[in-house]
Amino acid sequence: MSETVNDKKEVRVWIDGCYDMVHFGHANALRQAKALGDKLIVGIHNDAEITKHKGPPVFTQEERYKMVKGIKWVDEVVEDAPYVTTLETLDEYQCDYCVHGDDITTTVDGYDTYHLVKTAKRYREIQRTQGVSTTDLVGRMLLMTRNHFQQGESEYSVGKDDNWLDKKSAMPFGAIQAKPSKLGQDHAARSPWTGCSQFLPTTQKINQFSNGKPAEPGDKIVYVAGAFDLFHIGHLDFLEKAKEQGDFLIVGLHTDHVVNQYKGGNYPIMNLHERVLSVLACKYVNEVVIGAPYEVTKDLIEHFSVDVVCHGRTIISEQHGDPYEIPKKMGLFKIIDSGNDMTTEKIVQRIIINRLDFEKRNNKKEEKEIAIYEAMQRTTKVAEKCG
Fold first, then answer.
1. What gap in Å lies between CA 44 and CA 64, rounded to an integer?
2. Which one of 11, 45, 104, 130 is most buried, by most CB atoms within 10 A?
3. How high is the mean pLDDT in each 10-residue block of the chain (387 residues)?
4. Where are the alpha helices (DSSP H) in the chain?
5. What sign for the dihedral angle of Cα 11, 63, 259, 294?
């Protein structure tokens, strides 16, 4: 008797990692992994394991667990997942196979963390998202570079920012005046995985992240706006509360220029294209307005049939007037308390305060990857000669 659709075995996919400073590269890996099966189970390493094998994480394990649970493609999260993926782990969670990107992850002793599942042929590989890594983001904060939101003819260039910091820009206390380095900022970075190749946005990538579903008739439309830079646990908690105010949540993202005007320094740390994907990956978000106006206008409210405009308890910049003046007059404005006071600035301060540890971590990771990459190159050359 042929197998019916209802009898078809559910394919459970395992993927694991640190998921520190969860960014759109992590989200894209989870999206690709989910496409290989029916249910996606995500294992997340604890702080002690990460510190042992890679160096200190930026976010705590509790923050990382919650962030991954907020990504739309994730079905289950396994806390305290072992750093080396074992067959016992796959069996315990009834997973058919393990998925990982095409970069190499090793233990502190230099062993491939996936060697056991690879040997057992229970391993699938996906393409790593080019142009972003936690190492690169940490480097942007440590060096206070500005080349990640170039405009005009330099928008897609890759290279060191010669004018590292605008003389009029504010530099957080303890930040390092940028200088040539190997923190994934430019061509001097030697690792093929942590070295940053500029992220190139495409409509296909946006479509892959978007659910593409419009609001249903009768849905209560909620609108929020901001930078949503370095998408973090504070943003996640706020968006969860905002979504509770209605049925369809629209997030307006300000342009890099506008964000820089009200935040200064080298903000935003992530450019508009990167921030769009990070926000779209959140399970509470239905739609994103790319380059939303700073002032919430009547035209915008009417165009999207907005029923309520929300803002958190962060200070509203009124350098050019109150951006919420119109929704306030229309009786649509509401302040919501997410109960979380995390901000992008606090993350930057975490990095700066612990900058020596993070520099050491980044350099250590790159040196390990260089050694592995060079060994792979030598093996390839030997194989080509023998062939």
1. 8
2. 45
3. 63 96 92 97 96 87 97 98 96 97 79 93 89 73 58 45 36 40 39 46 86 93 96 97 98 95 88 94 97 96 98 82 95 96 90 71 63 67 66
4. 24-34, 47-53, 61-69, 87-92, 115-119, 134-143, 203-209, 233-243, 256-263, 272-280, 298-303, 325-329, 344-353, 355-386
5. positive
